[in-house]
Amino acid sequence: MPNLLDGNLLAGDIHVAIVVSRFNDLVTDRLLAGAIDTFRRHGVSDNRITVVRVPGAFEIPLPAKRLAESGKFNAVVCLGAVIQGETSHHEYINHPMASAIMQASLSSGVPVTFGVLTCSSMEQALDRAGGKAGNKGIEASLAAIETINLLAQMKSHGI
Ligand code: INI
User: Fold this and answer.
1) What is the pLDDT of residues 76-88, one digit of tens each?
2) How many CB atoms lie within 10 A of CB 47?
3) Which value, in Å, is the radius of gyration of the alpha carbons in the chain?
4) Ligand 1 pocket, 12 CB below 6 A?
5) Does residue 56's CB lie within 6 angstroms of at least one atom of ligand 1?
6) How many angstroms separate the alpha carbon of residue 80 from the centre of ligand 1?
7) Which of 76, 82, 113, 142 has the most crowded CB, counting CB atoms within 10 A?
8) Is the pTM of this model over 0.70?
């Protein structure tokens, strides 16, 4: 059998931050509810969960980076909803926002997960915020827990 490094989904004494945008709050409120519920169900108490609100998805990366670099959180979860309008505005938001979120994770060494929906319509977004296609907020919280545990396991192997 090869050595397997695989993060489990046990949480408890971790501290997490969630950055959530207000734009399209019909969607982002549902992503936030899914994320908080997931942490609670994995044993993370409310006093270990910090929620930071920002105006829109474009504003997510900077506070996410500050939170990740603060040394106070084991992971940061980013939640938002960019919905394609009649212009190409969304394209100017999506790519830099996603790469800045990734960069915040790589430069801090702290998992920063991507629960930002990039959809063509409100219907598609609602489907992914607790509708028929799941809830991206749940996915992003589970990814945070799993990556925290994976990094801890790697550390225990001297990696
Ligand atoms: N912000 C979003 O989070 N979602 C969107 O769909 C969106 N659109 O389509 O315009 C959006 N725009 C605001 C943007 O994120 C910034 O808050 C704004 O440009 C100020 O910097």
Assistant:
1) 999 999 999 878 8
2) 7
3) 16
4) no
5) yes
6) 9
7) 76
8) yes
> Could you tell me the two tokens for 6?
């695989």
Q: Which residue in this structure is represented by tokens 């959180």?
A: 73
| Residue 42 bears catalytic tag | no
Find the distance separating the first CA and the last CA of the chain, reported in whole Å: 19
For residue 24 and ligand 1, the question of a CB distance below 6 A is answered with yes
Beta-strand relationship, 134-135 and 129-131: antiparallel
Distance (angstroms) between ligand 1 centre and the Cα of 135 equals 21
- What is the DSSP secondary-structure string of the chain? -----------SS--EEEEEE-TTHHHHHHHHHHHHHHHHHTT--GGGEEEEEESSGGGSHHHHHHHHHTSS-SEEEEEEEEE--SSSHHHHHHHHHHHHHHHHHHHHTS-EEEEEEEESSHHHHHHTEEETTEEHHHHHHHHHHHHHHHHHHHHHTT-
